[in-house]
Amino acid sequence: MDFLIDFFNLNDVQWVPQIVNIIWNGSLYSLFALGYALIFSVLGVLNLAHSAIFMWGAYVGLWAVCGNTVFDGQCPAVDVPVWWAIPAAMIGGGIIAILVDRIAFYPLRQRNAPRLSQLISSIGIAIMMVAIAELVFGKERLSMPLDAIPRRNFDIPDGLSIENPLDIGRIGLGMYVAEFNILLTPVRLQIIVVSLILMIFLGFIVTQTRLGQGMRTVAFSERVSSLLGVHVDNIYMIAFFISGALAGAAGMLYTLNSNVFLPSTGSELTLKGLTVIVLGGLGSIRGAVLGGYLVAAIEVYMVAATDYGGLADAVVFFLFFLVLMFRPQGILGQPLPDRA
Amino acid sequence: MALLSVTDLEVRYGMILALRGISFKVENGQVVCLIGANGAGKSTTLNTISGLLKPYAGKIEFDGRDITKWRPDRICKAGLVQVPEGRQVIATMSVQENLEMGAYARSGGWLGPYLHPQKARKLSEEQRYDIEMVFKRFPRLQERRYQKAGSLSGGEQQMLAVGRALLARPKLMMLDEPSMGLAPVLVNEVFSIIKDLKAEGKTILLVEQNARKALEVADYAYVLERGQIIKSGPAETLRNDEQVIAAYLG
Amino acid sequence: MKQRFKIVVCLLLIATLVLPLSAMAQDGGDEEETPRMGFWEECADPANLSGEIPIGVVFGLTGSIAQYGEPQANGVRLAEQEINESGYLGEEATVTFVYEDGGSDRETSIAAFEKLINEGVVAIIGPTLSSQAFGADPLAADAGIPVMGVSNTAAGITTMTGDPELDQFIFRDSLPESGVIPGTVATAVEILGIEDVAILYGNDDDFTASGYEVFVDALEEAGVEILLEETFSRGDVDFSVQLTKIIEQDPDALVVSALIAEAVQIVTQARQAGYDGPIIGGNGFNSPALFTDAGEDANGVIVGAAWNVGNPNELSEAFVEKYTEAYGNPPDQFATQSYVGAWLMATAVRCADSADPADIRDALASIQDFPSPLGLFSFDEDRNPVHDPVVQIVDDGAFAVFDESYANYFD
Hints:
The structure holds three protein chains of three kinds.
Chain A: H1 2-7, H2 15-43, H3 50-66, H4 85-110, H5 115-137, H6 165-179, H7 186-208, H8 210-220, H9 222-227, H10 232-258, H11 267-280, H12 285-305, H13 312-326
Helix pairs in contact in A: 2-7, 2-10, 2-11, 2-12, 3-4, 3-5, 3-10, 4-5, 4-10, 7-8, 7-10, 8-10, 11-12, 11-13, 12-13
Chain B: E1 4-13, E2 16-26, E3 31-36, H1 42-50, E4 57-62, E5 65-66, H2 72-77, E6 80-83, H3 95-102, H4 112-115, H5 125-137, H6 139-143, H7 154-167, E7 172-176, H8 184-199, E8 204-208, H9 211-217, E9 220-225, E10 228-234, H10 235-239, H11 242-249
Parallel strand pairs in B: 3-8, 3-9, 6-7, 7-8
Antiparallel strand pairs in B: 1-2, 1-4, 4-5, 9-10
Helix pairs in contact in B: 3-7, 5-7, 7-8
Chain C: H1 2-27, H2 30-33, E1 51-59, H3 66-85, E2 93-101, H4 106-119, E3 123-125, H5 130-142, E4 147-149, H6 164-167, E5 170-172, H7 177-192, E6 196-202, H8 206-221, E7 225-232, H9 240-249, E8 253-257, H10 260-272, E9 279-281, H11 289-294, E10 301-305, H12 314-327, H13 333-352, H14 357-365, E11 370-372, E12 375-379, E13 385-386, E14 390-395, E15 398-401
Parallel strand pairs in C: 1-2, 1-3, 3-4, 4-5, 6-7, 6-8, 8-9, 9-10
Antiparallel strand pairs in C: 10-14, 11-12, 12-13, 14-15
């Protein structure tokens, strides 16, 4: 045991704050990857425009709380609670995802085009969406006003009393955060909570409802599904909506944390998200969640415990490569034929 | 009024004429079979009726309604259910889940079919009863209730495919090559299933290459050759037709 | 070469003898009211100059680069006016700056240089970007025309051709990062009594990585212990893992080498995490985005710069006043460096007492301790600028000059 601790250089690591870092980073990765995995499991095709939907979702959320000034590349004031941006981003992301399906996938599906063409088509629309975002919102970074987002580390707020039951939670959290030197802002807590809710919700839909069964049937065969009375186009539409809503939520939470809105936001997540779902198991919902936390754990570990933080991506992609070599179906995945 | 009537149905694959204007009828309570060689257009006929293929010309009427341009899922919901060629059970789902999928078509409402929880314990009384009936009919499926459908043998998969179709409570079942790829023992088993269904008064449109077996169970038959119906009549008549004997039963 | 050097030395000697007289004669009363540029004491009044002496100016005047190019051109215009009004080049001669748009890409700058060289300018100021300089400066060097960058801070600008015969024509007056950081670190250590620091830097970008190396050397020089070094990649938006480690170590100061996008995130996240000590930044922090995007979180950021609008230097104060009067807004660092660049060129023409590019080059190279808004300005042997940087601290949402009055700012 001591040997392992020495080998992995874990002595100097501050466990609690870094695990918190893993949790909120991992939640974000998982949330992003879930939508990716959902489309892959239903369509058998990677939707490489997922990160563009992520970015658009963030802009839609920004527009919802900031108003039309975002089209001039500004966000001078946020008059409504900033959290409204999250449902707005989800609805926006969902609708945009349906449009992506209609433009990039549907025509090809109708013609029974090979999956590779659909993959390439999704790359094309991703590039288009980034270009359109640059036109609409400008290439420069957009930010919300600094005071719009509660960004301070949790603390024991003034004026709270241990006698007020509503305050006990906040006091407890503040004490815990201070005691363990945790960096936990309200936005990050929001990331964790919203991600967990959405993950559980998606899990419920896929395993417990007719819709989920319909999706799994469509994933197996479009033809068989329609013979069983499944309205395949509706399933695709709903799947894209849910996937886009997850991407929108992830995009909004991601940008709320950084307060940087750029058309290029999320491009770095395309590959990372792919790694996440491949590690966990292509098309597996549980796999996407596991993969998200795994990638976050590797990244945090590389920075926290080694002097090679810059190599975190390299290690993640090396693992990606190993999984592809030795367990192509991923850690939790089942072997799948003919996917692209 | 026949339950299903197909009139002058013409189907093209690009420039190739797959069906050259065929017409036939299936009456309520009848077992009708289409026989013919490979590539005669039997499966094309079924897939066109099911809505998977769009006809170039002609008309399909089912239960008094023109379903020529309907989507496949709507046709299924109307009670015209196909058991596809090669069984096509959902390999990644359990036997139970496959049967539940069979009942998918019977859940109504716009949002209803999607967000209604559908696990065994939450199925409607009717659906649970139907599933139990399928297990009674095919006890071997009950034994493998929670196994993945992909792990079943060919015969069991055929049972599952038929059982799944029954869950939709079809008015007309279309079986596409149910005996294909099965060992002779299993072929007999499949046809005894069809006989049982017939005995229960189910209406069946059967497509078979195994013309001898098909004509044994059918009430009426059509012979398909290169996209055209060249002969039709009661199954018994065709069984004794020399031309048919020479071409398909010999 | 040697002979030229002798001539220059002779000229300088003569100049030192004659200049006090001429300066008084030329410019009696004015100087006392507002300090004026020029009238460098080392040079005599020119005797051989006449007519308009053309000097090319290449700045990016169109597109997004115009936010740098416009103030640069304004600085040169102001200098041109002052030079000619004061008769700096003698009774007979004036300097004429010929402006060409250098665009934002290399090719446009190269074309602008070619045009100016064909028109027979005696020297060129510009271009705006270092990358443009690498493309265009060799053209001037080939033609034997001195060229001075007034905003090029990349390493190796003045030795870009690798051939000393050509390189000798390439100058700059814009202080590179290596000229700014050591002074910044020394000042911060001296005033705040910093003993140990943590470093956070981008290791996948030339600019931030070289800034990091300069920081390490400067910290060693100042005897400061480096507790830990953390890295990030360009485009990162979250630094909580690194900051968790850094804050645990409780350093006296956080040293950051980053471009502005990451710099803003690091500053805000460090403050979010409850770190309220000094943050010493590299040149990447010299951007208004620091205030607009980090807001009050930026308070306590210490950054060195070649120049600051609050520079406590008489010439600088006079320049700010005049520039503001002429253009309606205070000058930025780019305007100041181009203004000084124009004056340096004029001074070289004056000291050379010749419109021959080679003579101008020699005179330019020998400028030492030239009083300017940037402070006492010299060229080193590689024709890089030498002058004291200004150490700034962000206080109440703006850069202020960092001096002893901030000794207790972080207490």
